[in-house]
Amino acid sequence: MVKSEDFLMKVYEDMKEDLRCRRNFESQLVYYFFLFYVAIGIATIPLFQTPNFPKIALSSSILIVLITSILTWRIVSDHRKYANIGQIAVRIWRYFEMFDKDAYLKCVPIIPEEKFKDHGKGSGYLFTIALLWSMTIGMLFVLWTL
Fold first, then answer.
1. For residue 113, what is the enclosing H or E element?
2. Each residue of 36-92: pLDDT tens digit?
3. How far apart are CA 99 and CA 93, in angstroms?
4. How many degrees, rounded to 5, is the angle at CA 68 between CA 65 and CA 69?
5. Tens digits of per-residue pLDDT, 105-122?
6. Domains of the chain: which residue ranges?
7. CA distance 12 to 58
């Protein structure tokens, strides 16, 4: 295969778009998950006085834990893909000497390697998972203490 900088730039643009979509998905996930809890809460309030409420609370709890588990798996899976894409971006940056001093700017690299060498491997996804599980535990607490 013939080396082409245009091809690398196209790959890089595609990766940036993929990274952006994955970040947006995680943000939207938290938003919709919060709405899901509001819907569950609104649906269970009128049922609080019914004799079947313990069964409804148990069913709701199982559903909530199941959905939280599936979303946690999805976030971890997406993070692995995100980290792999980040490493490809770093290789492209190295190819274009973005980390090298004097390559483009005098005495300064375009991208400081110490800040970006682990691009895509951050722990932000752990915060999202902790937020989802905190919301889940809070919702279960509310369901079972009414």
1. helix 113-116
2. 888 888 888 887 788 888 888 898 899 999 999 999 999 999 888 888 888 888 887
3. 7
4. 85
5. 666 666 666 666 666 677
6. 27-46+54-145
7. 48
Diameter over CA atoms, the chain: 76
pLDDT at 121: 72
Give the count of beta carbons closer than 10 Å to the beta carbon of residue 139: 21
Q: What is the pTM of this model?
A: 0.75
| Identity of residue 61 | S
Contacts of 139 (CB under 8 A, 6+ apart): 37, 40, 41, 64
How many residues are there in the chain? 146
- Pair of tokens at residue 130: 């902790």
**DSSP SS3 for 4:** coil
